[in-house]
Design a protein that fits this description.
Elements: E1 2-6, H1 11-17, E2 22-25, E3 28-31, H2 35-48, E4 54-59, E5 66-71, E6 77-81, E7 84-88, H3 97-104
Antiparallel strand pairs: 1-3, 1-4, 2-3, 4-5, 6-7
Length: about 110
């Protein structure tokens, strides 16, 4: 099973996705695809709607039975912690250690 949550899906992409998915809510697509069709569909979306934010949850042979991928600007981010897929609602990128060293500097 594949679930795609997209931000502001263009009509052309929405029409293509409806070939393989149902859309139970706007911009939420649910379907069962084989691996090849799954990869081709995601590549098509990324190629033809570069700025679209995607959260993709798909079946995967691990203890949870799924994996999470994100692409583009999203307000949630899928992360893997100790082999478990989680969703981070707020995400702060860590500052580089060089920036921390230059701010504090030697005293």
């Amino acid at each position: 099973m594949t679930v795609i949550v997209a931000n502001d899906t263009p009509d052309a992409i929405r029409g293509m996705l409806k070939r393989w998915f149902i859309e139970p809510r706007p911009n939420v697509f649910v379907g069962t695809l084989n691996r090849r069709t799954h990869q081709k569909t995601i590549e098509y979306i990324k190629r033809n709607a570069a700025g679209i934010g995607l959260l993709i949850i798909s079946s995967f042979p691990n203890c949870q039975g799924y994996k999470i991928e994100t692409s583009g600007p999203t307000d949630r981010k899928g992360i893997e912690v100790s082999g478990l897929w989680l969703v981070a609602e707020k995400w702060e990128e860590p500052e580089s250690t060089d920036a921390n060293n230059s701010e504090t500097g030697p005293q």
